[in-house]
From TrEMBL:
<feature type="signal peptide">
    <location>
        <begin position="1"/>
        <end position="20"/>
    </location>
</feature>
<feature type="domain" description="Beta-lactamase-related">
    <location>
        <begin position="128"/>
        <end position="427"/>
    </location>
</feature>
<dbReference type="InterPro" id="IPR050789">
    <property type="entry name" value="Diverse_Enzym_Activities"/>
</dbReference>
<keyword id="KW-0378">Hydrolase</keyword>
<protein>
    <submittedName>
        <fullName>Serine hydrolase</fullName>
    </submittedName>
</protein>
<dbReference type="InterPro" id="IPR012338">
    <property type="entry name" value="Beta-lactam/transpept-like"/>
</dbReference>
<keyword id="KW-0732">Signal</keyword>
<dbReference type="Pfam" id="PF00144">
    <property type="entry name" value="Beta-lactamase"/>
</dbReference>
<dbReference type="GO" id="GO:0016787">
    <property type="term" value="F:hydrolase activity"/>
</dbReference>
<dbReference type="InterPro" id="IPR001466">
    <property type="entry name" value="Beta-lactam-related"/>
</dbReference>
Length: 442
């Protein structure tokens, strides 16, 4: 069942994110950060008032105290579609202390265990959960509680990706057809000429790439789309997401290189709506979330004119994020009443990669390799940031949120964080998967 929650959004402006270095990369030029643990039980009225008065996109992008509040209270700032669970299926707890002792090489703290990272005063980790064969084997909360909803950021991109794959399996989308074939008002636009597969893999050849440069450019497609989604003016005028995407232009042929961008995912949201003849949130509810035994709502936050911000502004409890990951594992029946993700869809992810050279021939692939801390990753595929030869796949968010799935090991790893300059938390995912604790003989 879906409900709509209405909220208001305070004004702000776009600027580039902070890229400071050091032991505490946040405390620079007086940019003090409150220890994340202090927010685990919520915010005082004085803090909320301060965040409201200072609310702007620069603060959100750099991941300070304001971003912690925003990430935990997103539905207070956006109109929100609430996807409610039809039934609950609780996960069994079978904690394995060895998981917390697994170490990773972090960017600023050296090689430390997951337990130590979670409580490190400068990691700003908020929640970390590992599910094996449908059982919780590790769970740790610092800057939030198990009942809090937290924004996924770009980890949410897997939801539009899955929605498109479901329509492909239905025979309603041919990934080798163009966007314009399905979204008719885009037929004569640059996006309209791009194949669905190239949008899924972020190889569109358009000027819609998202990086530090485009996020700091007030005239970029990425910036204009964010402004439209947040209800903020561009050159004195409020735009609509759909109109911004129509202004994208081709810079080179599609399929030549990976150029990551949230506008690509937002185009998939419009594709799903055009083909299904449903609002995106209703489609996700009907085909995905209503089948799950989730604990609480999946909150899909909306632009001012009601378009789902599917590329990142989605929030949920951490356990429900893990349950979505479980849909890709053999233990799907411990979290869903019917199989949502077919073996065919999983195979498309695992076998749909471009080459290692393709992935690394550009800005984005190298960023993902560094983020996950593992050079064995082959490439991205179908909105996932990394796919490995062993069949595992992973998706990250800009403020160090993430989801890692190993279908073979029946393993799901999810985490929430509010840390832009140091994304070391991702590096524990592959270390956990390769620790030997979850090999078949275990």
């Amino acid at each position: 069942m879906k409900k709509i929650l209405l909220s208001s959004l305070l004004a702000g402006s776009i600027m580039s994110q902070v890229n400071a270095q050091g032991t505490n990369v946040h405390e620079i030029d007086g940019d003090y950060r409150t220890p994340i643990k202090e927010f685990s039980n919520g915010f005082t009225q004085d803090q909320v008032q301060k965040f409201r008065e200072n609310y702007n996109l620069p603060h959100l992008l750099k991941g300070g105290d304001d971003a912690v509040w925003w990430g935990l209270r997103t539905s207070e700032l956006f109109n929100t579609a609430l996807l409610e669970p039809n039934h609950k299926m609780e996960l069994v707890k079978n904690i394995n202390p060895a998981v917390g002792e697994i170490k990773a090489q972090t960017k600023h703290f050296g090689e430390i265990s997951l337990n130590d990272f979670m409580v490190h005063p400068h990691s700003y980790a908020q929640g970390f959960l590992v599910v094996h064969k449908g059982e919780i084997v590790f769970e740790n909360y610092q800057g939030m509680t198990e009942n809090d909803h937290h924004v996924w950021m770009s980890a949410a991109k897997i939801i539009p990706g899955l929605a498109v794959d479901l329509l492909i399996s239905d025979g309603k989308i041919d990934e080798n057809q163009t966007i314009g074939h399905y979204v008719h008002d885009f037929k004569h636009t640059a996006y309209g000429q791009v194949k669905v597969k190239d949008v899924m893999d972020m190889t569109t050849g358009l000027n819609s790439e998202e990086n530090d440069e485009t996020r700091s450019d007030p005239n970029s497609i990425t910036t204009r789309m964010f402004l439209a989604e947040f209800g903020l003016p561009y050159n004195g005028k409020n735009e609509k997401v759909r109109d911004v995407l129509k202004d994208a232009e081709s810079t080179h042929p599609a399929g030549e290189k990976l150029e990551y961008g949230s506008p690509h995912t937002q185009m998939l949201v419009l594709l799903v709506e055009a083909v299904s003849n449903q609002p995106f949130s209703e489609f996700v509810d009907e085909r995905i979330y209503s089948k799950m035994g989730a604990e609480s709502t999946l909150n899909i936050h909306l632009s001012p004119n009601g378009v789902a911000i599917g590329h990142g502004i989605v929030s949920s409890r951490l356990r429900d994020m893990a349950k979505i990951g479980m849909l890709y594992t053999p233990s799907w029946n411990k979290t869903a009443t019917e199989q949502v993700v077919s073996p065919e869809i999983i195979s498309r992810i695992q076998h749909g990669t471009r080459s290692r050279e393709f992935y690394r021939n550009g800005f984005d692939g190298s960023v993902f390799v560094d983020r996950i801390g593992d050079d064995d990753v082959i490439s991205n595929a179908r909105q996932w940031d990394g796919v490995w030869e062993d069949g595992d796949f992973w998706k990250s968010g800009i403020q160090s949120q993430g989801i890692y799935v190993s279908p073979k090991k029946d393993l799901v790893i999810v985490f929430f964080s509010t840390n832009v300059p140091d994304d070391s938390i991702h590096r524990y995912a592959r270390q956990i998967a390769n620790s030997g604790l979850f090999d078949e003989e275990q």
